[in-house]
TrEMBL record, chains A, B:
Record-given protein name: Ubiquitin-like modifier-activating enzyme 5
Gene Ontology CC entries for this record: cytosol
Segments forming domain THIF-type NAD/FAD binding fold: 74-323
One Pfam assignment: ThiF
Length: 423, 423
């Protein structure tokens, strides 16, 4: 049956749809194209360039630095200012981020914006509206896997970064093996290990899995954590064999003068603040940049107490009786390597990190005087003021990747400390 | 002329367009609807709720806290954990953010995600691809005004927040008057002043404009800054009459053991790092939350030296010979108010902030011992180690809102300090 108005209605509908689609696409905008090298060109399309003004260029010329005009870029400026010798090197590094939640997502975004070479992301959670009180994820991403949502956003921000995402829980046996394989082989050049693993997870089991993997592989990693009450956090650099691993000593947190545990007890709702998570992610990625690009002082441990704005730093020796046999093996390797080095170098190294201040090998790097340390009270007299133990060491002697759930030790901290001292 | 295939082709085109539009909209997703009160309901659509798991709920019940099950929310958990007495109060506050760049945009995002009542944003810049090495803005926003792009993103994240944005430079005479009017009247309840002004600008002139406005209005504000080399920053709380204003003393920065000035010289390309900016924004908004919600210790000055992970804190008395007459007036008002208070209260207050440690009234709140202070070297012997002067005080006696550009003082720091001491 002929409908004379049908053609006209269809034509109008096509026009409407085309307009709506155009509006939709305009609103979202087009992502920028990839850039092969950190170009020194001063063009509007170079995201690494500096937003220059005419007056400024004139001044730069007056200063006899005309040749540098083209390379004025905000990140590359770190080089010109003498902070970093070779900023471009950032593009050669691969970093694995385990846990893409409140800290991990911001960590991945910072690394992406800094121009890291490749990012491996591991997480098995989905974005929920309950996550909106931290940074990064947006309400329209609710329901997507965190790694998928993160990859989409990060690729838009910087298409020069390579992404490899894994939507699984690293603590199950099969996934753990795959995780080990990817951190061993997943660098920019396939077959080479990643440069750094960052732990941004929110539970003890996942931290232990990362610790186990890194001890076995001799993989340098950094741990991060935010307390359950959201007002303290910390980052820690772990060099297997050289500094205390996660199983060497009870992981430490900065006390906020309130009872707290970093360990997230499942189902007990933890508080969270975008502020604390932003600060911890910033401290973490700053430490990553300093470590990878070789500038400033890399912190072995940096705490953050938001209640008092207190930021303790320290370093810890590994425990020769560590329950992880791979940690003990790495310690032996490190000792042999140190013994083989020319003497001056060894001394320099020792001054830098290994000290015998106390039973736990905790060395104060700054801010806390010997007097303050001696006056420090609390359940662990050897710990500097403001630092307390986050969680106790599990009972098991060997590593935890058995497919079972880790059971938290019921022993008191004092009992554990006494036991470890008598080991 | 009849075209028998035309109807069919149009129908196919409508289907294609509808599908593409649906894909486009799915990709972007729908923003969430507004929520009138911080509801305790545990539903998937409540962004303030905690992501609870069954096992957890059981545990919560075992702990005899069944009644709290519904109110387990990540932000509200701050209340349950004894950190904040009345978190919901956050929705009653209005904060003005001046400068929506590297620090200001993250500051606005944190406040939005925390559920602030109203945000006023001031900036006159456009988003550029050169901004992509800081957090927040995305490449597709290039060309939009920063306040417009920020409002769009922030409204999607949390439609419960009220936004008022001004795309202008606050330092010109007309705009300055409008700016004064909005911070005096732009609270949630029109006609009332905002609760806090945050300076996230990158130049001296804008900081001076905010200082002038806040001294005149007796408006409490916080200043923030990141050094030109991107590896240090600071935040500062300024209570007119009670703590040093921006004109009282040369604003201070944390030294990174390298020559630096926070003052952005126009055209000289400053380095910038998302890490430093994220840490400074986190410190700033944490201080805002502590100040507004009355928990923890609000810092008068908190510095960040990224090279050494050093975070000095201190506080400064106002300068009785401050060049800003409104600052001097506020000092008189404060003295009168303090004199009228019961004695114990005055003492408590004095212990908290006003000390006479040195000519500059700089008080060490923590971390730096008296010995370290005495041993501190550098051009300004009264300043604690690690703190140096960011920029010098301009020559002019009166405030700077004259429509002219501020000229930087050519006097050496030593000359200025000597002059001020002899005032």
């Amino acid at each position: 049956m002929a409908d004379p108005g049908r053609l006209e209605r269809l034509e109008r509908r096509v026009r409407e749809l085309e307009e709506e689609l155009a509006r939709e696409k305009r609103g979202r905008g087009a992502a920028r194209a990839r850039i092969d090298t950190m170009s020194p060109e001063v063009t509007d399309s170079n995201p690494y360039r500096c937003a220059e003004r005419l007056r400024g260029s004139a001044r730069v010329r007056r200063m006899g630095r005309r040749e540098s005009r083209g390379s004025e870029r905000r990140l590359m400026a770190l080089k010109r200012m003498g902070i970093v010798k070779d900023y471009e090197k950032i593009r050669t590094f691969t970093v694995a981020v385990v846990g893409v939640g409140g800290v991990g997502s911001v960590t991945a975004e910072m690394l992406t914006r800094c121009g890291i070479g490749k990012l491996l992301l591991f997480d098995y959670d989905k974005v929920e509206l309950a996550n909106m009180n931290r940074l990064f994820f947006q309400p329209h991403q609710a329901g997507l896997s965190k790694v998928q949502a993160a990859e989409h956003t990060l690729r838009d921000i910087n298409p020069d970064v390579q992404f490899e995402v894994h939507n699984y829980n690293i603590t199950t046996l099969d996934n753990f093996e795959h995780f080990m394989d990817r951190i061993s082989n997943g660098a920019l050049e396939e077959g080479k290990p990643v440069d750094l693993v960052l732990s941004c997870v929110d539970n003890f089991e996942a931290r232990m899995a990362i610790n186990t993997a890194c001890n076995e592989l001799g993989q340098i990693w950094m741990e991060s954590g935010v307390s359950e009450n959201a007002v303290s956090g910390h980052i820690q650099l772990i060099i297997p064999g050289e500094s205390a691993c996660f199983a060497c000593a009870p992981p430490l947190v900065v006390a906020a003068n309130i009872d707290e545990k970093t360990l997230k007890r499942e189902g007990v709702c933890a508080a969270s603040l975008p502020t604390t998570m932003g600060v911890v992610a910033g401290m973490l990625v700053q430490n990553v940049l300093k470590y990878l690009l070789n500038f400033g002082t890399v912190s072995y441990y940096l705490g953050y107490n938001a209640m008092q704005d207190f930021f303790p730093t320290m370093s810890m020796k590994p425990n020769p009786q560590c329950s992880d046999h791979n940690c003990r093996k790495q310690q032996e390797n490190y000792k042999k390597k140190e013994a083989a080095r020319p003497k001056e170098e060894v001394i320099e190294k020792e001054e830098e990190i290994v000290h015998e201040d106390n039973d736990w090998g905790i060395e104060l790097v700054s801010e806390i005087s010997e007097e303050e340390l001696k006056a420090a009270s609390g359940p662990v007299p050897e710990l500097p003021e403001g630092i307390s133990v986050a969680y106790t060491i599990p009972d098991k002697e060997e590593n935890l990747i058995t497919g079972e759930t880790v059971t938290e030790s019921e022993e008191s901290l004092e009992e554990l400390m006494a036991k470890m001292r008598n080991m």
